[in-house]
């Protein structure tokens, strides 16, 4: 743990010639700041992709869906000239379109080609890994049980790789609805941003029904999701309230609140901005935990710490459980154009 700042604690009461009760010591208020938090390698790559595309091609650059699930990031990129759309048909023919970090189905690439769009795929490489696994197991005629949340863009994209073979399992309670052709040829895959514990519970229930169920070659839940959940689990038992910075449509941010509550935090809240923190959340609290989802820029976390400091929570201890150094290169189609532009200049 790294101590960032600390207030001095006043001394004991003073004797004045008669017996008195001890002078009340001000309650020590503190913040436990989770690390790792915020941007993961896939989000950093996706946001940088849009930023570099705007520099290279000029505005507007169209982005299919939110590039990452964060309100602040989207509004910031919109101010720079990015235009967010729901489908390719909203993009003028011949324009540049960036696909979000959550991945897309093959048909989305085909639609882009039909409209003569310059497509830049910012899908997180860890999501792409799940797409490759789905295609490989489908080619071997496996039934694929995809653990994830119905309607999430990542689930839609992965399912699109092998729709005839993939069946969604939306949590442990959905296991009873699973039907497979051959119990000896079944594999489970998962959305990358799920609760680790809930996913393992889902898998355990599946294996009671399907003892020969195979697991993916490597973990599908990404390192950043696992790391952020682990550190929140560590600090939550000591926290009266845990504040997670993140947007409501961010699966991994929502999961952090759930993990905090499950690990012993007395309360947990999700906020996009510091201004959303209610004073009543802090009433009676002495320890506040702070973390942020994988699509949240660090300046939003710093604003939360400043907000808490103004309310007496000026002592901040950073609690670190892992160091993250992974980075991903920009999409190859963007790198190719950047290299060509540099050669011309």
From TrEMBL:
Annotated residues for binding of (2E)-4-hydroxy-3-methylbut-2-enyl diphosphate: 69, 102, 152, 192, 250-252, 295
Highest taxon, organism lineage: Bacteria
Binding site for [4Fe-4S] cluster: 40, 124, 222
Enzyme class: oxidoreductase
Stored HAMAP family: IspH
The record's free-text note on cofactor binding: Binds 1 [4Fe-4S] cluster per subunit.
One of the Pfam families matching this protein, by short name: LYTB
Keyword terms, alphabetized: 4Fe-4S, Iron, Iron-sulfur, Isoprene biosynthesis, Metal-binding, Oxidoreductase
Residues holding dimethylallyl diphosphate: 69, 102, 152, 250-252, 295
Catalytic activity annotation: dimethylallyl diphosphate + 2 oxidized [2Fe-2S]-[ferredoxin] + H2O = (2E)-4-hydroxy-3-methylbut-2-enyl diphosphate + 2 reduced [2Fe-2S]-[ferredoxin] + 2 H(+); isopentenyl diphosphate + 2 oxidized [2Fe-2S]-[ferredoxin] + H2O = (2E)-4-hydroxy-3-methylbut-2-enyl diphosphate + 2 reduced [2Fe-2S]-[ferredoxin] + 2 H(+)
Cofactor list: [4Fe-4S] cluster
Keyword Calcium: no
Positions with a binding annotation for isopentenyl diphosphate: 69, 102, 152, 250-252, 295
A Gene Ontology BP annotation from the UniProt entry: isopentenyl diphosphate biosynthetic process, methylerythritol 4-phosphate pathway
Protein name: 4-hydroxy-3-methylbut-2-enyl diphosphate reductase
Classification via InterPro entries: LytB/IspH
Keyword Membrane: no
Similarity comment: family membership: Belongs to the IspH family.
Annotated pathway: Isoprenoid biosynthesis; dimethylallyl diphosphate biosynthesis; dimethylallyl diphosphate from (2E)-4-hydroxy-3-methylbutenyl diphosphate: step 1/1; Isoprenoid biosynthesis; isopentenyl diphosphate biosynthesis via DXP pathway; isopentenyl diphosphate from 1-deoxy-D-xylulose 5-phosphate: step 6/6
EC number in record: 1.17.7.4
GO molecular function: 4 iron, 4 sulfur cluster binding; 4-hydroxy-3-methylbut-2-enyl diphosphate reductase activity; metal ion binding
Purpose of the protein: Catalyzes the conversion of 1-hydroxy-2-methyl-2-(E)-butenyl 4-diphosphate (HMBPP) into a mixture of isopentenyl diphosphate (IPP) and dimethylallyl diphosphate (DMAPP). Acts in the terminal step of the DOXP/MEP pathway for isoprenoid precursor biosynthesis.
Catalytic residue positions: 154 (proton donor)
Gene (UniProt): ispH
PANTHER family, per database record: 4-HYDROXY-3-METHYLBUT-2-ENYL DIPHOSPHATE REDUCTASE (PTHR30426:SF0)
